[in-house]
Amino acid sequence: MFTWHVTVAAHWRVISNGEPESEEPGGIAGTKTVHFARSARMSTYVTAVCAGPYHEVRDRHDGIDLGVYCRASMRRYLDAEDIFLVTKQGFDFFHAQFGIRYPLPKYDQVFTPEFNAGAMENFGCVVHAEQYYIFRSKVTDYEYENRANTILHEMAHMWFGDLVTMRWWDDLWLNESFAEWASHWCNAQATRFTDAWTTFLSVRKNWGYRQDQLSSTHPVYCAMPDVAAVEVNFDGITYAKGASVIKQLVAYVGIDAFLTGLRDYFSKHAWGNATFEDLLSALESASGRELREFAAQWLETAQVNTLRPVIVRAPDGTYDSVQVVQEAAERYPALRTHRIGIGLYDLVGSHLIRRELVEVTIAGAQTEVAELPGKPYADVLLLNDDDLSYAKLRLDEHSMETVVNHISGLDSSLARALCWSAAWDMVRDGELAARDYVALVCNGLPTERDMSLVTASLSQAQGACTYYAHPDWARTGWALLAATARHTLTEAEPGSGFQLAWSRVYISTARSESELALLRDWLAGDPPDGLVIEAELRWRIVQALAAGGQLGEAEIQAELERDRTATGERQAATATALIATPEAKEAAWRRLTGPDPLPNWLQRAMLIGFHHPAQLALTEPYVSRFFEVIDHVWASRDSEPAQEFVELAYPAQHVGEATVAATDAWLAGDHPAGLRRLVAEGRDGILRALRARTKDGSAG
Question: What are the φ and ψ backbone dihedral angles of 363, each rounded to 5 degrees?
Fold first, then answer.
């Protein structure tokens, strides 16, 4: 338990885990001291004090005093009503499902500047990063859903992490995996974001798949010898893969048994520490099922399996046989037990209608699906339909052909997401040419109505052009994306989120003189009907024009005068780093690597702008220079900015053997383990891109 006494400027507000009990003038003129009541019992890592000239909005729900805070200068952008709505929906849902009420009298959410992470689950005093969750201009439903998911993620921690705390960081995965799973579960069940599992698959789970295929992959459960090991494991395996394991565990034991066990776990260990062993025992008792083998398969082995259908069609148009082949990476040969759905879809007009869902258990290298022989052949056979398991998927040739031509005909956004995810995996694995993926996006995505799928797939298409397309074709790919984006945003409903999403893509893909000239027209006040060029979009255009050599520092400073805010400062720093001259790159590099560490926000903003796929000639000299400075940067910066520098400054866009050779030469030396891991992950990306470019080049 903790008691806080905080002395601050007299006009500041102070927020902590507990409620303020009293305040009095401080010992220095113009100050005050705020005394907080003794807190509830809690772990040291979820204590918090936030102080500053905050704007405050309060509400009350189900006996809980609710507060939302932001900087006074951001108050006009704070949509507290929507934040409170999601918060109330979350409390109602978790109270009903967890069987134990939120135990504190108040729940504050502080949207604060310069917070390094997205959010933090301090007990009763959650901190959110202002730059991600307060919107200064129009955004799409994807951003609102992402914010709702973060609100619910941190709220789930009030039970799983705060009320019951892991005994040691070995169970870091469980803490974050549970909150990740619970937030999407609540979002889908209790808020307007009913397709939240589609977002989980298309955004979060793809993050897990990527992380799990790096040389640094690790089991979900890892021994954590020290805090340094903890810091590098806040990754896609801990969050997304772990949440996928929880989701499959729920499917394996059933939601009723899972909740019974969970309630027992909360009841037994409230206000104390517990382990995964404690949770597993509670779930075994509630379900009557042995779960140790499940846990060993999914938590103690690394990498991801691939599931492929092998189909034999009978002469009468039925299935003669269907097998599911399970593959594993050579260095990580574990084959797991998967409980999956197999969806059979028939093409009816322009729609793909699911005729049947067959649930089967997949184990070993080959599994015969006994339920399918004799059934009529489907136009699409979709493995892992409903996305119960964690595995990469492949489509048979006939299903793939149907999906390429009719993907928008799938009524379920989750089914479409599975198909998009399978195609993206094939690009990354060198099985599908990047140009074919870009063509699929340009043909199939303009009619997609799920905003998370649009956002994720458009980002991946740009990634395909940046990393996986053969250099001789990449320019064509960028032009195709720009032309598709321009046509689609013109056809979209004026003022809609889809118009905004496609306009962002047009801005980031514009390369030619005519495309950049159109952006200048937008900036000058002649945008498409319904498209409002506000702060966020204006800065995107300014940055695109800077990257394209269309404007320089004077124009950026003029734009900053229009938006002299903390956000404007960040955006201007990114734009300045994007200026397409050797002098600008040199100036940015000197600031990033100089003797004096930059503020975290400034370093991040400049790193975002330093590398750009249209500026490879400008940044080529910094391939070797990166390896000259990273040991010094690592040793002289705090851990988070040091990690961020290595991840964002690594020359990932310089896909070639020269980058691999430079990386190998550096890796041959003696360096700290965390730094080696991050550099080796960069090398993994280059090798994967080289394989994909070979595939794309052969398609040409």
Answer: -145, 145
